[in-house]
Amino acid sequence: MSSTETMRAGPFKVKVEDVPIPTIESPNDVIVKVTTAAICGSDLHMYEGRTGAQAGITFGHENMGVVETVGEGVTLLSKGDRVVMPFNVADGRCTNCFKGKTAFCTGVNPGFAGGAYGYVAMGPYRGGQAQYIRVPFADFNALKLPPGTENEADFILLADIFPTGWHGVSLSGFQPGETIAVWGAGPVGLMAAYSSVLRGASKVFVVDRVPERLAAAEKIGAIPIDFSKGSAVDQILEKNGGMVDRTVDAVGYQAVDTGGKTEQPNIVLEDMIKATRPCGGLGIPGLYVPTDPGAPDENSAKGRISLSFGKLFEKGLSLATGQCNVKQYNVQLRDLIIAGKAKPSFVVSHEIGIEDAEVAYDKFDKRIEGYTKVLIHPNGPL
Ligand SMILES: NC(=O)c1ccc[n+]([C@@H]2O[C@H](COP(=O)([O-])OP(=O)(O)OC[C@H]3O[C@@H](n4cnc5c(N)ncnc54)[C@H](O)[C@@H]3O)[C@@H](O)[C@H]2O)c1
Ligand SMILES: [Zn+2]
Known about the structure:
Keywords: Metal-binding, NAD, Oxidoreductase, Zinc. By secondary structure, this protein is an alpha/beta fold.
């Protein structure tokens, strides 16, 4: 028996290959037959060769499916359970896990805080863009879902982007009734905007330059800001009648300038410092890396991002960043979906079989033809 997987084959290349089905390696493992795995903007960093991923790595940190085999130490899961896994692999028994900081688990990835499936530097965990995936510490890492196939496109977003968007808003210190501006209308930015709407923001601005993405933001009640038409900050200040309470960076280190071609890794953070009111807050779920061979200048290649820190100090701004502790949020967000109060699947643009992954990576990377969030069904349509 084999499992078909989406693997990195080199810069801007993925291939789909058959490999042996994963097996139970520890009594705490389960093997999940994957019904849906999503492609993430973070996969593109590896696809493009920006984060030093080796060829042969299996992609896929946003995974859900049905439990197929249960290790003998697992007590909360049974064969046939429908589950979604946080992208974080965590052991549930280190100090950070005890405190809910599962993205910084110290027990799953020696020399590094945090583990993930199918991700460079995040430990030896194969990705789930595959027919089967091994889930370690499964009682802790698998969230049970109602059986069946209902809301599949909503539940898969619990693996990463819905909690990550929600987390970005929390990192900014947001309170109901406040105004907030989100940079980036990719899947994470749209989820941050959607979370702000759900959490009672008085006004939500979303900055991007891709028309379909701005249209999606407008559809959920946010105010689109097109930064190809001029300074995002000026547009926000004018439309809001002043600075906003909170800002979220859902772009990360590959931010581009107004012209849309030149990377400027500090441009979003600089905009946020300008657009946030004194004593407001910046939430930064957007990814920054310690080394980046493709960076536009020597400093940012070493992960040194230049910031107007003096301005940040003068305004008394607070700032928080880091990977999302998915487990901190996924139960409440699952229950919002089950109750019909949240439907994050509006971001899903394409659903494909695994054989079409190569084309999907290419188009998603070029951000063409409306490719925003791609769901792969590795075992065929549901
Ligand atoms: N913290 C976490 O746990 C976590 C989890 C998932 C993803 N991420 C990171 O979040 C970021 C967003 O992910 P995504 O999948 O939505 O990515 P994406 O690449 O699909 O979206 C980024 C968007 O930013 C826009 N953009 C570029 N420059 C801009 C600028 N100057 N101003 C405003 N918008 C600009 C792009 O047009 C694009 O639409 C990435 O850095 C990703 O790695 C972090
Ligand atoms: Zn992701």
